[in-house]
Amino acid sequence: MIFVSGANGQLARAVINSILDVGRGGSLAVGTRDVNSDFARELAGRGVSVRHADFRDPATMRQALQGVRKALIIPTYDTNDVRLQQNLNALEAAKAAGVRHVVYPSFLAAESERVEHSRLVHYPTEQAIRASGLDFTILRHALYADILIGDLQQTLATGALRRAGGKARCAYVARADLGLSAAMVLMREEPSGRVYTETMDRTYSGDDIAADMSAVFGKPVRYEAVPSADWPRFMHEQWGLPMELAKSTIGTMQAIEAGEFDVVSPDYREISGRPARSMREFLESVRDGGATR
Asked: Does residue 157 fall inside a structural domain?
């Protein structure tokens, strides 16, 4: 039995859909805080074992992980001050339940001291996994290309793609592509100890992305840099993100500006046997209504 946590989340859905696409739903268990969501009910109807699981409650996690051989432990979207303990709860539950192999979606350049969620959550979680005695695979994700399209209609209407980063280039990858690669790692025999860095085959500047948007959507788009110091206010005012969460992203934006994410890796191709979609291919899938699959 394989297990995916956070079943109602976007990354988990991409993983789950990839597993269902190859007819492996009968060997899949998923965990979620909300077992009565429409998606959870749909999964149950398709033969997936839907289990109540809450990283804040180790007892529910131990129960959810019973009979599981390999588990994808996806961090929650809670604030960084609590996410590490949640991950440790899930890891201890996996050990107690007899899970043999854990897969953890981490972040590009996880050792970075500049990036808050790497410093407080991802890197210490990686270290705890290494020390756990369990077999493991770590998937270090580039920035989701999906973050570029959350305000796509406004971008196209104003002709301005407003993002942090300045002139620096940055690694991206589509969430749906990461769902596919994580599913493949879960479904195959995977040696322990591998750390994969998953990116597109090239990096992109803001100007590059704006040019691709212009070509794909047929409307002129220019890139306007938002200084990293102003980014939390932009996210709060434009996207409605709580300020506490928005402030935690400053280090990530500074890392982009400093070129820390100008990284290209062949690992995605190694896992999946094909390259991750390019930025233009991702945007074309958005235009054609298939960004999530």
From this structure: no
H or E element, residue 116: helix 116-117
CATH number of the domain encompassing residue 19: 3.40.50.720
Q: Is 70 among the domain residues?
A: yes
Residue range of the domain that includes 92: 2-145+172-201+264-276
In a domain, 22, yes or no: yes
- Count up the domains in the chain and report the number: 1
List the 101-107 sheet strands across, edge first. 49-52, 28-32, 2-4, 70-72, 101-107, 135-141, 194-198
Digitized pLDDT (tens) for each residue of the chain, 293 residues in all: 999 999 999 999 999 999 999 888 789 999 999 999 999 999 999 999 999 999 999 999 999 999 999 999 999 988 888 999 999 999 999 999 999 999 999 999 898 888 888 899 999 999 999 999 999 999 999 999 999 998 999 999 999 999 999 999 999 999 999 999 999 999 999 999 999 999 999 999 999 999 999 999 999 999 999 999 898 998 888 888 888 888 888 899 999 999 999 999 999 999 999 999 999 999 999 999 865 44
What predicted TM-score, i.e. pTM, was given to this entire model?
Answer: 0.93
DSSP string, 167-236: T--B-EE-HHHHHHHHHHHHHS---TTEEEEE--SS-B-HHHHHHHHHHHHSS--EEEEPPGGGHHHHHH
Asked whether residue 291 is assigned to any structural domain, the reply reads no
